[in-house]
Amino acid sequence: MHLEELGDATKVVEQAVAAGVTRLIGVGVNLEQSTNAVSLGHAYQEVWAGVGHHPLEPSEPDFRALRQLATDEMVVVVGEIGLDFEHVGGPHNELQIERLNELFDIAINFDLPVSVHNRGASHELLQAISRHKGIRGVMHYFALDWDWAQRFLDVGFYLSFAGLVTRPSRDELREVVKRCPADRLLLETDSPYGNSQKRMNVPNRPAYLIDTAELVADLRGVSLEQLADQERTNATTLFQKMK
User: Fold this and answer.
1) Which CATH number is correct for 3-242, 3.10.320.10, 3.20.20.140, 1.10.1060.10, 3.60.15.10?
2) Contact predicate 87/120, CB 8 Å
3) Could you read off the pLDDT tens digit of each residue along the chain, which spans 243 residues?
4) SS3 of 171-235
5) Cα separation of 17 and 22, whole Å?
């Protein structure tokens, strides 16, 4: 989630906790937002931080500063990072790959998982993951078919699903949700983005994770409580400092 884009952070956190969402990660897409995420992690006991540099971010990443931030006790992930080859006008593909390699190195150096953005770059991401032995993490906002899901699962990654799976047209993605191993499935909001079908015209909130969770539980034939227990285990296994 991007708490700094949601306005009153206290209200957002309180609403999330009231809805049963008791662990939140504020992610950074550049140095400023990463710094803010760390500050929020220290301000709220329910919030941890991600530090990263989004592939479409126009500014030059300050790897030295990001490395320093990654040492903070509240940082549980390097992200949001990744590759985006579909957006016109973003940094060229080769530059994105160079930056991603640097960010993967930071994650490995500090034994942190990564949260990976992927648009039109699945082959290149698999190659980058294979080059960095020991890298672990999650495919953020997963939206691909089972063939690609299996490939990312095979290299040890988790799959994270957001409100997109609630769209009636996403039968292929719902099939991935059904088939994903229970111990590799994560849920997210990507707030203030990633709205569920019934909240298309309002900013997303961490509290609205329940929309996705209810559908995923139904698709997998488990109770909401069983799904919550599994999600808690998965999240604390991958984001180890959240235990």
Assistant:
1) 3.20.20.140
2) no
3) 665 565 688 999 999 999 999 999 999 999 999 999 999 999 999 999 999 999 999 999 999 999 999 999 999 999 999 999 999 888 999 999 999 999 999 999 999 999 999 999 999 999 999 999 999 999 999 999 999 999 999 999 999 999 999 999 999 999 999 999 999 999 999 999 999 999 988 899 999 999 999 999 999 999 999 999 999 999 999 999 887
4) HHHHHHHHHCCHHHEEECCCCCCCCCHHHCCCCCCHHHHHHHHHHHHHHHCCCHHHHHHHHHHHH
5) 5
Under 8 Å between Cβ of 233 and 188: no
Phi-psi region of 180 (alpha: psi -120 to 50; beta: other; left: phi over 0): beta
- Residue 233, both tokens: 């285990």
Q: Of 99, 94, 133, which Cα lies nearest the Cα of 116? A: 99
Cβ 82 vs Cβ 100: under 8 Å? yes
SS3 90: coil
Output the pTM of the full model.
Answer: 0.96
Residues 6+ away with beta carbon under 8 Å from 76: 25, 48, 49, 50, 112, 113, 239, 240, 241, 242
Domain boundaries, given as residue ranges, for the chain? 3-242
